Amino acid sequence: AQKITQTQPGMFVQEKEAVTLDCTYDTSDPSYGLFWYKQPSSGEMIFLIYQGSYDQQNATEGRYSLNFQKARKSANLVISASQLGDSAMYFCAMREGRMFSGGYNKLIFGAGTRLAVHP
Amino acid sequence: SAVISQKPSRDICQRGTSLTIQCQVDSQVTMMFWYRQQPGQSLTLIATANQGSEATYESGFVIDKFPISRPNLTFSTLTVSNMSPEDSSIYLCSARANTEAFFGQGTRLTVV
Question: To probe the interface with B, which of A106, A108, A113, A114 has the most B CB atoms within 10 Å?
Fold first, then answer.
């Protein structure tokens, strides 16, 4: 069963505007982590932001913020003040289970959203 | 954070041959992970590599096709064996540092 759902295959935004990329997840484990990655055309995966299931506040990293709505099982990525360099694929991922010392459980990825930033 | 150096960054290989991909982490990590990303698709986990033990493979992936080595806590290799055009993908290694999961730069493999 699909556990991470990204319903937007493609999005576009005007430069300097904000954009929200949707991600919903499904898990019965009370302990989990949610990640967002950016993948430019070069193919590398760039870590953007992390939200733990027990974190009280929404995660923020510079222009990236995660709109975490636990009851709705959604973890949307908000990019403020979009830049041309933000054009890329964006993947939402989930880790189930509590992290233990020295390692972590595998990540499950969504299908991705391709973001195009227009000048 | 952790820095993962992966090589080669890309290669074009003949069918029937094998390619070994290397990943070097700048700090010690317990587990490393290998993913495949087929063209236009998301990432799929191939296997989890622990130091000192055999890798754990996901459904649909077998050791004979994707042998993995993990000789120490900073290094791992993935071999794509007896390649066919269907193996053309981006292969990525990953490791965790605290709550964050980092990736190598990826290996873009084309099999002709």
Answer: A106
